[in-house]
Write a structure and sequence with these properties.
single chain, 352 residues, alpha/beta, Rossmann fold, 2 domains, 7-stranded mixed beta sheet, two-stranded antiparallel ribbon, globular
């Protein structure tokens, strides 16, 4: 009898202590890096509704698709410019192994980035996004995907211009990491849908956000066989005598902005998202595709760069965007008011 009572007591302690751990984990605030704000309350209310099987707004796990822009939504955009712009600038003007062989055309594009960056602006050139995309394709022509990603990861270790205590590798917004994790924990499949180079996005964000490489969509350059020599893919068999490698060509395949984001989502995901996160006009088409004619309850969020103390922001542009996004019914995320931190402790904005 004594032996039975002892076993019962031990078993009870085990059960109740286990329950205590589970309760603690469940009650842990998933948004420790956020202030109390309407944007997070709205997201939590949405998730509560669509994950409740008794709710009329319930969404099955397989249809819980959330898409995120990267630059300006998940990571810093203005220090002083897009990371991929700064990558091209470094490659063509500073890389000791490449700058002397970079063409005049590439150096011209890189200098546009450097000069505009002195004023924390993107180059005032019509469709510079395409100018950059074509230049980047040529600047990294011949590298295998692994070689390019390794190059990017080395570059990302550099100190972020415009900050002290921050590298490009650590430029992902800490509060947005919590958003991605929260959605993943509630059965959402999270995708990055960026205008930046797909492979650069993989190098920067996959590990930090626990997003697999095949859930990253971005700008693409055409990939070819190293011995393809300009032949059409229908006229060439990969593995020419076992000597072929898959390499980046010098041709831009697709700049993933605006309608091209919708095209790529439909092509690669095959389902209409129910949540969309962005920060600029390049994300409006993605938002509208998400919220228009959807059989499920949807939401679209726009993050605005309105914090001039902790980050770089153009408030004239920010105020204009905020008014546009509110008019469209998007939920606004304010970096200044909603984020307790942006990049973490020890990071200081500079004007260097």
């Amino acid at each position: 009898m004594k032996k039975f009572c002892f076993i019962f007591i031990i078993f009870s302690i085990f059960i109740f202590s286990g329950c205590g751990e589970k309760t603690t984990e469940q009650s842990k605030n998933p948004f420790e890096l956020w202030n109390e704000c309407e944007s997070i309350s709205a997201l939590q209310n949405y998730v509560a509704a669509v994950t409740d099987e008794k709710s009329e707004n319930f969404i099955p796990v397989e249809d819980r698709i959330a898409v995120f822009d990267m630059d300006g939504t998940l990571c810093g955009e203005l220090f002083p410019e897009y990371i991929e712009y700064l990558l091209l600038e470094y490659r063509c003007l500073d890389d000791p192994e490449y700058k002397d062989i970079a063409s005049d055309e590439l150096k011209e594009a890189a200098n546009l980035i450097r000069e505009s960056g002195k004023e924390y602006k993107t180059p005032a050139v019509d469709h510079f996004d395409l100018v950059h995309g074509k230049a980047q394709a040529k600047a990294f022509e011949g590298l295998t995907p692994d070689e390019f990603i390794a190059y990017v990861k080395t570059f990302l270790k550099r100190e972020a211009r415009g900050f002290k205590g921050l590298t490009y590798a650590n430029s992902i917004y800490k509060p947005m990491i919590e958003v991605v994790k929260y959605l993943q924990n509630n059965g959402f499949t999270t995708y990055i849908v960026s205008g930046s180079d797909r492979m650069l996005c993989r190098a920067l964000a996959c590990e930090a956000l626990d997003i697999p490489e095949n859930q990253v969509i971005g700008m693409d350059v055409r990939l070819v066989a190293s011995n393809q020599a300009g032949k059409d893919g229908l006229d060439y068999q990969f593995n020419a005598g076992g000597k072929d490698k898959l390499v980046r060509s010098g041709e831009l395949w697709l700049k993933n902005l605006k309608m091209n984001k919708v095209f790529n989502i439909a092509q690669e995901i095959g389902k209409q998202p129910v949540l969309s996160f962005g920060n600029s006009s390049g994300d409006v088409s993605m938002h509208e595709y998400t919220v228009t004619g959807n059989k499920y309850k949807t939401m679209a969020f726009m993050l605005i760069a309105d914090d001039t103390e902790r980050d770089h922001a153009d408030m004239t542009e920010t105020n204009k965007r905020k008014a546009q996004w509110e008019q469209k019914g998007y939920t606004i995320i304010s970096m200044k008011n909603d984020f307790k931190t942006i990049y973490g402790d020890g990071v200081v904005k500079t004007n260097d």
